[in-house]
# Entry
Amino acid sequence: MSTGNRPKVRAGAEFFRQPATAAHRQYEALRAYFVEGLPAAAVAKQFGYTTAAVYALCRDFRARRLAFFRTPAKPGPKHAPKRAAARQRVIQLRQQHYSAYDIQQRLQAEGLRLSVTVIHQILREEGFAKLPRRRQVERERPVRPERAAATTIEAVDWNSWQSVETAAGGVFVFVPMLVAWGVEQWPLRAQLPGSTPIPALNMLLALLVLKLTGQERLSHVMDVCTDPGLSLFAALNTLPKTTALSTYSYRVTRSMTVSLLQSYHQALRQAGLVQGECFNLDFHAIPQRGEVAVLEKHYVSARSRRERAILVFLVQDSDALVLCYADATLQQREQADAILQFVEFWQHQYGTCPALLMFDSQLTTYRTLARLDAQGIHFITLRRRGKTLLQALTESPPSAWKRLRLSGVNRRYRHVRYQESSVTLRGLKRPLRQLAVAGLGHEEPTLFVTNFAQLKPLELVERYAHRMLIENAIAENVDFFHLDALTSAIALQVDLDVMLTLIANALYRHLARQLKGFETAHPKQIFRRFLDTPGRITVTDQHVTVQLRRRAHHPILLASNLLNSTPAVPWWQGRQLRIQIG
# Structure
């Protein structure tokens, strides 16, 4: 035999030629004898056995008394404790003709959780056949939620409120404010739709109380519709359900919402919640969640992208921090003129033009700025920073820049530099003032444009720096009043929802002004510390008494004298409200 036909010995062969364990040596010896065909004497010599020992190994191997390889166990658990514990119970329930779904519910009630698939496997292993199909009346009737009564003012029974508990006792703090604002006249002026079961006033109060308690969506009314306190707030036997509330909002038109805005402004003036000196204006896009709707695409800042949304135009009184105007019916082609609609509304309401408007460069166009300037309306806005403008500012000498020290802003950006010039914008008949301000936290200077010649540079920059307050107001309305919880793809319904948000926000703002130390607190904080408390309601022919459970911050509420008011509530048939804490 030539050397070329010999098998090649590779590294690692010593493991097989020199076994380290007895079992391995026995295996290699048997392999040499049976597979390689070596004589017993040669095998005995190679592996250190006697010839008789080799024959004994062969005998034991043929008798299957030698085992060299262990069969590995299957991975995973070797037993199912839940299935084993429930097996006998599953068999008992099937013997009582329960289906797999019925068995699952029974086991869950007994503290055993098994899936329907596992129950089917147990029944199949035990040899049970499928049950014959049963009629609905033959099946076990499941426990369902209690069906709430139909909402109708005719079913109101004042005796049912003689002594009841409510989880929303604190919301009655707003009732004296609503009475003082004359809210019972608002639906009449706006000609809001109503029906015999649910008049317009009661429906408005039902929608408003959901806002005041921070309910996220109209569909969540089912969680609280049986609360006697909320139904008493609206003077109904129970709150209207989701379908009734949604259907009602479809019947509200923009002209009705504008009338509500007019009544709302009368209340704001009466309560001193509007100053009318300076206004912050902004757009807010409420994104659509769910199925594709017939909506235009707008930029949603929270998601940093354009998507289908409803655009809401908001105006805030810069001094009182109250949202005083909103419009959620705008189309993209109408965005630039939204500011003119607000000006027209303000003129109709107060007989004068707004004193000063502040907005960013995306809000409107140069053509609209020209119309504002022609009406003598002062404005402060931003100008987009083009390459030519930035290059000119960069090349300007240091002597062209003047210094300002701002107050009421972050200390890091208190010292800024500015230079003032005149600029002529396309479509405007006269030049405007332009202030380039560096040091406000941006890498490039900020360009302010205004037609207010008498406004000092320091006051101009500080006023616009406070414009972020409208962004804070939008954030708090999204946080507690769930402004972004789009009620529908229909813009009119969102318009009503935004109007209710304005009213609820103003009520909280008015309440906060009476609470020492909480004058600037957000609605969510006011609700959590003062109003989120249960109470006991007692109703007589003359009075409605609400006794609130004591909270740590209630001494501040008592010191405000808000609870001393005992108005006769028109929608309670003239009964007087009394609020107590104890």
Q: What stands out?
A: Residues 105 and 288 are 37 Å apart (CA to CA). The chain has a mean pLDDT of 85. The first strand starts at residue 164 and ends at 166. The chain is about 40% helix and 15% strand.
